[in-house]
Specification:
Helix content is 73%, strand content 12%. The protein is built from 5 helices and 2 strands. A two-stranded antiparallel sheet has the order 1-2.
Length: 160
């Protein structure tokens, strides 16, 4: 009977170790999927908006710091352009070219600028979190400290 009880304890310990390792694998894979998702979204936006969109925020901030109006916005999101149209009068068509204002591009510029900075912020946070988990789990002394710290917190909490 006593031998059977030891076998059950050994099996439970192995299961706990397996579950603990599985949790770390799930965390790593989830964070890797987050980074892949961000990379793909930036790639798709780069294809949609033209080349070098991945550097859009950097060049935007650089131009603002240097006191220049960000020129990249004029290329990707022109606010003023020339519009051609034909006006029919007395049976004949008269071509005209006028200057058109595109106010929707002002909103597009703000939206895509916000998206770039949001993606950059999320990528930095995810990368830092990934490195932190590698640091915690990678070194034995960090693992022990991490577990002891969380056990102390659990012991301080009142039971319900």
């Amino acid at each position: 009977m006593k031998n059977n009880n030891n076998n059950n304890n050994n099996n439970n310990n192995l299961n706990n170790v397996y579950v603990g390792a599985l949790v770390h694998v799930i965390v790593y894979r989830t964070q890797a999927v987050y980074l892949i998702n961000l990379s793909l979204q930036l790639l798709i936006l780069n294809l949609f908006l033209g080349t070098e969109y991945y550097m859009y925020g950097y060049s935007f901030v650089r131009d603002l710091v240097l006191g220049r109006r960000p020129l990249s916005t004029e290329i990707r999101f022109p606010r003023v352009t020339l519009c051609d149209f034909k006006l029919r009068r007395m049976g004949s068509e008269h071509p005209h070219t006028v200057q058109c204002v595109l106010p929707i591009n002002l909103f597009n510029e703000k939206i895509f600028t916000f998206m770039w900075f949001w993606f950059a912020l999320v990528a930095i946070a995810t990368t830092c979190s990934f490195i932190r988990w590698l640091w915690i789990v990678g070194l034995r002394c960090n693992r022990i400290h991490y577990v002891r710290r969380h056990l102390k917190v659990q012991l301080q909490l009142p039971y319900h």
